[in-house]
Design a protein that fits this description.
- The chain is an alpha+beta fold.
- The chain has helices at 17-43, 47-53, 55-85, 91-100, 208-217, 280-313, 325-334, 348-372, 379-412, 422-431, 499-506, 538-548, 596-641, 656-670, and strands spanning 107-112, 118-123, 140-145, 151-158, 164-170, 186-190, 196-201, 223-226, 234-235, 238-251, 256-269, 435-441, 447-452, 467-470, 480-485, 492-497, 512-516, 522-525, 555-559, 562-570, 583-589.
- Strands 6, 7, 8, 9, 10 and 11 form a six-stranded antiparallel beta sheet that branches. Strands 2-1-5-4-3 form a five-stranded antiparallel beta sheet, with helices on one face. It has a five-stranded antiparallel beta sheet with strand order 13-12-16-15-14.
- Helix 6 (280-313) runs parallel beside helix 14 (656-670) and helix 7 (325-334) runs parallel beside helix 13.
- The longest helix is centred in the last third of the chain and has 46 residues, at 596-641.
- The two termini are 24 Å apart.
- The relative contact order is 0.12.
C-alpha cells in the first residue's frame, strides 16, 4: 500500500517489545542473582550451621532454667496458702512452717513490710537490704548478691492476712548438657553486660568478647554468633571456629526478662564441605538457557515478524515471507494476493505457547529436583537433636518430680479437717499450671474435696505410698497423676497432671515431639494426636527401644516419604520418674534444619517459582494484547479477501496490531466504490 502518515501508537508499555523488555530484564536479574547467591549459599555452613542448629537447644535450656526459678515462687505461694489454714502467731514458728515448703531455699527471712524490720531468719543470711521496696502485694523475683558476692535469686512473697513478707534466696542452676563432641565448651549464666555469674565447664578467656557480644544481643531474643574462623582449638589436626549461642531467661506470666542469659560457648568446624541438593552451576546454566531460548524465540519469531509486517503495511517495498499464519494472511490481503497454503506455517497462539514452554519446563524441572532432593545433615547437627531430646526429657522429668514434691510438701501442713484445705488446694492449682485438678480422697478413692476441673481418674483405692502413676492405657485422655498420703493415714492427696501442659513442653522443640509410655503408646504430643496411638514407624520404635536400653542413637530416617532427624531420650534420673519408663522421641524434618543444603533448596524453589511466574506473565501478556487481536485481524483480512468490503475494521489498541488494523481498513476502503470515514481508536 502507499505510504502516508503513520497512525498514532502508544509505545511503551503497549508495544510488542514491552513484554519482552520488562520480563526479559527481570529474568536477566534473576539469572544474575542465581549466579551470585546460589554458589555462596552452597559454600556456607560450617560453624554458622552448627551454631544455628543449637539455638533451639539453648532456648530450651533457658526455659528449663526459668522453670526451676519459677518453681520456687510456686512453692512459696503454696506454703503461704497452707500457712493460712493453720497459722502460727510467732515469726519463728511461721518461718519454720514456710521452710518445710521450700526445700530449694538457701536462706529464708521474715520481715515486716511496713518497717522492713527483720523478724526471723534461717539458713544462709538473706540480703534483706537488696530489696529496697518491701511493701509488696504480689510475689516478685529478682537477682541479688549475697554476702559472699555470689549472685542468687531472691523471691519475695507477702503473707496473706499479715504485715509480714517472706524472703527466700535460692542458687542458680545450669542444666547439665553439652554440645556433643566439641572441646572447650561451657554453659554460662551471664548478665546483659557479659558478666559471668555461673558456669558449667570452662572456656578460653580469649572468648570473653564473644560472650559479651552474645549477652548484649540476648536482649533481642534467641540467636548465635560466630567468632573469627580458625581461632578455636585444634581438632583432628584442624583449627576450629568459636561459636556462642544465647537465649534470655524469662520468668513470670507474662514472661519478663530476669536480667540473666544462658550462653553456650563451644567450637565448630571452620569450614564445611559444600554439599548442596542441587548443583548450583548446572541449575543456573539451565535457567539461563531457558531464559535465552524463550526471549530469542519471542523476539525473532514473533515480535520481529510483526514489526516487519507493520513496516510493510505502512509503505515498505520489501516483500517478505511469514511463518506466522496470521501474518501471512494479513500480508497477502494488503498486497491483494492470493493466500498461499504452505507447510511449516504456525499459528501465533501455538508459537507463543511454544516460545514460553522452555521457561515453564525449566521451572517444573528445577522445582521438582529441589523439592525432592534430600539435604545432608552433618553429624554435629544430628547430635544436637539428641541434646534437644535430652533437654526436653529433662524438662518433663522436672515437671513430674516437682508435682510429687508439691504434694508431699502440701501434705506436711495438712490438717485432719480435709474440708479446710479447699482454699489451699485452689491456690495450688492457680500457682501450678501443671495440674488439671487436685483433690483429697478417702482410703477407697472417693473424692472428699477438690479444686480445678472434674477428676478423670476412675474411683479406686489409691496406690500405697507416694509416687507418679499412669492409670489407663486406652481411652480419650491419658490419666496421669501423683499421689501422697496425708498425715492422718486415712486420706490421700492426688494431683492429676494436665496433658496439655506436658504437650506445651514438647512444643518447645522443632518438629513433632511425642511422649510415649513403655508400651510405645502416645501420652502427649506437640502436634494433634489421639491418646494412646501406638508408634507405627519402625525408625521411631527402634529409637525409643534404643533409648530405653540406654544406647540412644540419633539418626536420619525416612518416615511417610519424608526424611527426618530422629532422636529419643528417656524421662529418667529421678526416683519418682524412673519406674514410669516414659520416653521422649523427636522427629524434625531435614528440610527445616539450618543447613546450607536447605538454603540452596529454598533459593532454587524461589527461582523456579519466579521463572514459572515470568513465563505465565509473558504468555498472558502476549496472548491477551497481541495474539487474540492478531487472530481477529487475520479473520477480518480473510473476509476482505473474500469480498466483504462493508465491514469496518476497527483497531482494538494503539499498538502495532492497531496500526495493521487501520492499514487493512484503508485497503478495504480503497477497494470499495463508496469511501467511508477512517476509523480511529478514540
Amino acid at each position: 500500500m502507499s505510504a502516508g502518515p503513520e497512525p498514532v501508537e502508544s509505545g511503551f508499555p503497549g508495544g510488542l517489545r514491552a513484554p519482552l523488555a520488562v520480563v526479559g530484564a527481570a529474568l536477566a536479574l534473576l539469572v544474575a542473582w542465581c549466579m551470585i547467591q546460589l554458589p555462596a549459599a552452597g559454600a556456607g555452613g560450617g560453624a554458622s550451621a552448627v551454631a544455628q542448629s543449637q539455638e533451639l537447644l539453648v532456648n530450651d535450656l533457658a526455659r528449663a532454667t526459668a522453670d526451676s526459678i519459677g518453681d520456687v515462687a510456686g512453692d512459696l505461694s503454696t506454703a503461704s496458702a497452707l500457712y493460712t489454714v493453720h497459722p502460727d502467731p510467732t515469726p519463728a514458728g511461721t518461718l519454720a512452717a514456710i521452710t518445710r515448703g521450700t526445700p530449694q531455699a538457701l536462706g529464708l527471712a521474715l520481715v515486716q513490710r511496713s518497717s522492713g524490720t527483720l523478724l526471723a531468719g534461717t539458713g544462709e543470711p538473706v540480703p534483706v537490704e537488696s530489696l529496697p521496696n518491701k511493701d509488696l502485694d504480689r510475689i516478685t523475683v529478682t537477682l541479688v548478691r549475697d554476702q559472699s558476692g555470689a549472685t542468687v535469686v531472691l523471691t519475695a512473697a507477702p503473707l496473706t492476712g499479715t504485715d509480714w513478707l517472706v524472703l527466700v534466696t535460692t542458687g542458680l542452676k545450669i542444666p547439665a548438657t553439652t554440645l556433643s563432641g566439641q572441646p572447650a565448651e561451657a554453659l554460662l549464666l551471664t548478665t546483659f553486660d557479659g558478666q559471668v555469674v555461673k558456669s558449667r565447664g570452662e572456656f578460653d578467656p580469649q572468648y570473653q568478647p564473644l560472650v559479651t557480644a552474645a549477652s548484649t544481643n540476648a536482649t533481642g531474643g534467641v540467636g548465635s554468633l560466630v567468632g573469627d574462623a580458625g581461632k578455636g582449638p585444634v581438632v583432628d589436626g584442624a583449627r576450629t571456629t568459636p561459636i556462642a549461642v544465647y537465649a534470655p531467661i524469662l520468668t513470670g506470666d507474662p514472661a519478663r526478662p530476669l536480667g540473666l542469659n544462658l550462653v553456650l560457648v563451644g567450637s565448630a568446624p571452620a569450614q564445611a564441605a559444600a554439599r548442596t541438593p542441587v548443583e548450583t552451576a548446572w541449575m543456573t546454566a539451565i535457567l539461563a538457557a531457558a531464559v535465552l531460548a524463550a526471549l530469542m524465540l519471542l523476539g525473532f519469531g514473533f515480535v520481529l515478524p510483526l514489526r516487519r509486517l507493520r513496516a510493510e503495511a505502512l509503505g515498505g517495498r520489501r516483500r517478505r515471507s511469514y511463518r506466522l499464519r496470521e501474518a501471512a494472511v494479513v500480508s497477502a490481503t494488503l498486497r491483494n494476493e492470493i493466500v498461499q497454503v504452505r507447510r511449516g506455517r504456525i499459528s501465533a497462539r501455538t508459537f507463543v505457547v511454544a516460545a514460553v514452554a522452555p521457561l515453564l519446563v525449566c521451572s517444573a524441572v528445577v522445582g521438582v529436583v529441589a523439592a525432592t532432593t534430600v539435604p545432608t545433615a552433618p553429624d554435629l547437627v544430628v547430635q544436637g537433636e539428641r541434646g534437644l531430646a535430652e533437654v526436653t526429657a529433662g524438662a518433663l522429668r522436672d515437671q513430674l518430680s516437682a508435682s510429687l514434691s508439691d504434694l508431699r510438701t502440701f501434705a506436711t501442713r495438712a490438717t485432719d479437717d480435709v474440708r479446710s484445705l479447699k482454699p489451699a488446694l485452689v491456690n495450688l492449682i492457680a500457682q501450678n499450671k501443671r495440674y488439671r485438678s487436685v483433690y483429697v480422697t478417702d482410703a477407697d478413692g472417693t473424692v472428699q474435696v477438690d479444686a480445678g476441673r472434674t477428676p478423670l481418674r476412675t474411683v479406686e483405692r489409691p496406690p500405697a505410698g507416694s509416687g507418679l502413676h499412669q492409670q489407663n492405657t486406652a481411652g480419650r485422655i491419658p490419666v496421669l497423676y501423683a499421689n501422697t498420703p496425708l498425715p492422718d493415714h486415712t486420706h490421700v492427696l492426688i494431683g492429676e497432671l494436665d496433658v496439655t501442659k506436658l504437650s506445651s513442653i514438647l512444643r518447645r522443640s522443632a518438629g513433632n515431639g511425642k511422649l510415649v509410655d513403655s508400651g510405645l503408646r502416645t501420652l502427649a504430643s506437640a502436634d494433634g494426636y489421639r491418646a494412646f496411638d501406638p508408634l507405627t514407624d519402625q525408625a521411631l520404635k527402634q529409637s525409643v527401644t534404643d533409648a530405653l536400653g540406654g544406647v540412644g542413637r540419633p539418626g536420619t530416617d525416612q518416615i511417610d516419604g519424608q526424611w527426618y532427624v530422629v532422636a529419643a531420650a528417656t524421662v529418667t534420673g529421678s526416683p519418682s520418674t524412673d519406674p514410669l519408663r516414659w520416653t521422649v522421641v523427636l522427629q524434625q524434618p531435614l528440610t527445616t534444619l539450618p543447613l546450607p543444603d536447605n538454603v540452596v533448596r529454598r533459593y532454587a524453589l524461589f527461582a523456579a517459582l519466579a521463572v514459572g511466574a515470568a513465563g505465565l506473565l509473558l504468555l498472558g501478556w502476549y496472548h491477551s494484547c497481541f495474539v487474540r487481536p492478531l487472530r481477529r485481524l487475520a479473520d477480518a483480512a480473510a473476509r476482505v479477501h473474500q469480498g466483504d468490503l462493508k465491514t469496518v475494521i476497527y483497531p482494538e489498541r494503539l499498538n502495532e496490531i492497531g496500526t495493521l488494523s487501520q492499514c487493512l481498513d484503508k485497503v478495504r476502503r480503497q477497494r470499495t466504490a463508496t469511501p467511508a470515514p477512517v476509523p480511529l481508536l478514540v
